[in-house]
Write a structure and sequence with these properties.
With 151 residues, the chain is of the alpha+beta class. It has one domain: Hotdog Thioesterase (Thiol Ester Dehydrase, Chain A, Roll). The chain has helices spanning 28-33, 66-85, and strands spanning 6-7, 18-19, 21-22, 36-40, 45-50, 93-101, 111-120, 124-133, 136-146. A hairpin with a 3-residue loop joins strand 7 (111-120) and strand 8 (124-133). The mean pLDDT is 93.
């Protein structure tokens, strides 16, 4: 599955995973977050992994900054929707994102978002999930995305 805006193909260095990269590496995903991969998990779910957490992703305590976690969740909700529902959802927008921080993410280790589509209507997609790093639960979230208008 592909879209003109995304590179979504098998990731040779990560067997079983696919790349999740924008064609334009000057946009937010590449600049603020970095390399990501995705894999489907069941009929309505996916796991998105931020591969490289560096000092630039840290807060003053040396942990993953909450803004990085929220940005990753936002990207993962869209990536899950794209992976499960298809490329026609490209151009969707986030209507709401409710996040509860539970633990601290560590720099130097990949950060995973496990995301599931709970319900889909004609215009909306409701999702939920968790952010995990190894055995550590970093956050849980609920979000709603609005599909693009048909033109």
């Amino acid at each position: 599955m592909s879209s003109a805006a995304f590179i979504h193909e098998p990731a040779p260095e990560h067997p079983g995973w696919f790349t999740w990269t924008l064609n334009d590496d000057s946009r937010f995903n590449a600049v603020a977050l970095g390399p990501m991969v995705i894999r489907r998990e069941g009929e309505r779910a996916a796991r998105v992994r931020l591969l490289e957490l560096e000092r630039r992703h840290s807060n003053m305590h040396g942990n993953v900054h909450g803004g990085v976690t929220l940005a990753l969740v936002d990207v993962a909700m869209f990536a899950t929707m794209f992976s499960v529902l298809g490329a026609e959802v490209a151009g969707s927008v986030t209507l709401d994102l409710n996040n509860q921080f539970i633990g601290a993410g560590r720099i130097g280790e990949p950060l995973d978002v496990s995301c599931e589509i709970m319900r889909e209507t004609r215009r909306l997609v409701f999702l939920r999930g968790t952010v995990e790093q190894g055995e550590t639960l970093v956050s849980s979230f609920l979000g709603t995305l609005r599909k693009p208008s048909v033109r």
